[in-house]
Design a protein that fits this description.
Blueprint (H helix, E strand, L loop, with lengths): L1 H8 L4 H14 L10 E3 L8 E3 L12 H7 L9 H6 L12 E3 L3 E9 L5 H4 L11 E14 L8 E12 L10 E19 L4 E13 L9 E13 L2 E10 L12 H5 L2 E9 L2 E10 L4 E13 L2 E11 L9 E11 L2
Antiparallel strand pairs: 1-2, 3-5, 4-5, 4-15, 5-6, 6-7, 7-8, 8-9, 9-10, 10-11, 11-12, 12-13, 13-14, 14-15
Helix pairs in contact: 1-2
Length: 338
């Protein structure tokens, strides 16, 4: 037990550390006195209080072969993916709890090599003359709505991500928000236990995703898609791969009919953690049109769960208004490591 406690204590991710301790508490022998009830020490002048231990999640009611495929075996090291997606019994935290989803960060200065002002000239006489340096931030979370749906290993999640590009230093234009993208999604996630040697496959997700910039007329950008995502890891290395299918491509009034020509049909995300640092990369490519994008990041310790963060981007689609506009950018700020 002491070794397990030490293993939890060294986790830098606060959510993973808490889930690790919760898992140990669930698997520890129950304290028994006067029958099956534990006795809690009373406050002065009060009666002893008897408490019932929390019941662990019920086992999914699935065939043996399915249970073997979807049950992740206990390991000596704590799995980041298992904690983030609550993939085993010890990691379960119930429903309606906020959990991290994609990165949450603030880039105090994000410099772009070029500015896409053409859409704004088409909507207003003066248009927008944007500065090359702006403030960029992203907020992202997810919440489990149903745990072990219909007595299966499948959980239903809701996720939300918001990414904003703010011309905070453009006083001449009254510091407008140049673009904000809103991205709600619903996700069905099941654990997987597949040992491929170089990687351990951890989960499969089927999702429904909507992304838009909340604008109207010629500034409007939006699309809907279904996707499948597989996540795998080995030690400090994590990898996820998504493939998506657009749902609204045939609409005659579509405001970005060719978006998949630039954003492709999937993406690949990889990360590596070491000594409190994290290197990350997201890549996508449409091999038919030779368009795509690459985003790289470096997070490093600053204080508690706050990390310094440097992000670089090259390609198309840094935001929805720029989905068909190629640019390079680099920014620096902070990332919250929940």
């Amino acid at each position: 037990m002491e070794l397990r406690l030490e293993r939890c204590a060294v986790l830098g991710d606060a959510s993973a550390r808490l889930a690790c301790y919760d898992g140990l508490a669930k698997t520890a022998p129950a304290v028994k006195a006067a029958g099956d009830n534990a006795i809690v020490a009373p406050a002065a002048g009060s009666e002893p209080v008897r408490t019932q231990p929390a019941a662990p999640p019920a086992e999914p009611n699935v065939p043996a072969k399915v249970a073997e495929l979807t049950t992740i075996k206990p390991e000596a090291a704590v799995s980041r993916m298992v904690q983030e997606w609550e993939l085993d019994r010890s990691a379960k935290r119930g429903v309606f709890n906020f959990r991290p989803h994609k990165d949450t960060y603030l880039l105090l200065a994000n410099y772009s090599t070029s500015s896409n002002d053409a859409p704004f000239r088409e909507t207003t006489p003066a248009g927008l003359k944007s500065k090359h340096v702006e403030l960029t931030y992203q907020i992202s979370f997810k919440m489990k709505l149903i745990e072990q749906m219909m007595s299966t290993p499948v959980d239903l999640w809701f996720g939300y991500t918001q990414n904003s590009f703010w011309q905070a230093y453009n006083r001449a234009a009254s510091s407008p928000f140049r673009e904000t993208n809103y991205q709600p999604e619903m996700m069905l996630t099941t654990p997987l236990s597949l040992d491929l040697g170089i990687l351990d496959v951890r989960y499969l997700t089927l999702g429904l995703n909507h992304q838009s910039n909340g604008q109207t007329s010629k500034l409007s950008r939006s699309w809907n898609r279904v996707y499948a995502e597989v996540g795998a890891e080995k030690g400090k290395f994590a990898l996820s791969f998504r493939l998506w299918k657009r749902l609204d491509n045939a609409r005659s009034d579509n405001d970005n009919i060719d978006i998949t020509d630039f954003l492709g049909h999937g993406d690949l995300t990889a990360s590596y953690r070491f000594d409190g640092h994290e290197l990350s990369m997201t890549a996508r490519r449409n091999f038919s049109t030779n368009h795509g994008a690459l985003r790289v990041g470096w997070a490093f310790p600053v204080a508690a769960n706050l990390k310094g963060y440097v992000q670089g981007f090259t390609g198309y689609g840094q935001s929805l208004i720029d989905y068909n506009y190629g640019q390079k950018s680099i920014g620096a700020g902070f990332l919250v490591d929940f």
